Amino acid sequence: MSQVTPEVLWAQRSSNAEPEKNFIYLTISVPDVPKENLKLDLQPTGLTFTGHSETLKRTYHLELTFYAEIDPAESKVHHTDRNVELKLRKKELNDEYWPRLLKDSKKVQFLKTDFDKWVDEDEQNEAPEDDFSQFGGMGGMPGMGGAGGDFGGIDFSKLGAAGGMPGGDEEDDESDDDMPALEGEEETKEEAKEGAKEEKDATKAAA
């Protein structure tokens, strides 16, 4: 029986201070592979996965070599009837994202970005953590309250900046409003002249 390479979706987060927010999120799409039929070997430098589906008569096999090292002891695996989800703790704390998942820069067809989980590097502090609730024991969860306070600060500063805007807008609006009003008046006068002319013509015609 031939082996099939499963589709893999990935996303990531990074932090140079909080290990639990410095991870790779990996989803291996292997429908109908029961837990007893899969073998996952997770190493610091990569992983090897083999899974067999009786219903689909298919054997999945995957070997990945990561761009940088992970910490298998701090990584988590969650199995569902549709896929195997992994939350791989990056070994090195770093604010910067990995430029790619794999060591080899060559593009592979089976690997895709998980857009449901992906956030841009500079927006990740605002990303919800509940995407990863199925892993349990999320160290980052209780701290979200503090982060929420920070967001409030950001919002207030935006509001503060926006607060200065209406004054400028009002001045612009006044100057803008004057112009269309003048144009409008001219048009109105022209239309009035045209209307009077048409009325005269109509009166003459009726006479």
UniProtKB/TrEMBL annotation:
Residues 139-152 have a biased composition (Gly residues). InterPro entries: CS_dom, HSP20-like_chaperone, p23-like. Residues 139-207 are annotated as: Disordered. Residues 3-102 form the CS domain. One of its GO terms (cellular component) is cytosol. One of its GO terms (molecular function) is Hsp90 protein binding. Residues 168-189 have a biased composition (Acidic residues). Residues 190-207 have a biased composition (Basic and acidic residues). It comes from the Eukaryota. It holds the Pfam family CS. GO terms for biological process: chaperone-mediated protein complex assembly; protein folding. Belongs to the p23/wos2 family. This is CS domain-containing protein. It comes from Daldinia eschscholtzii.
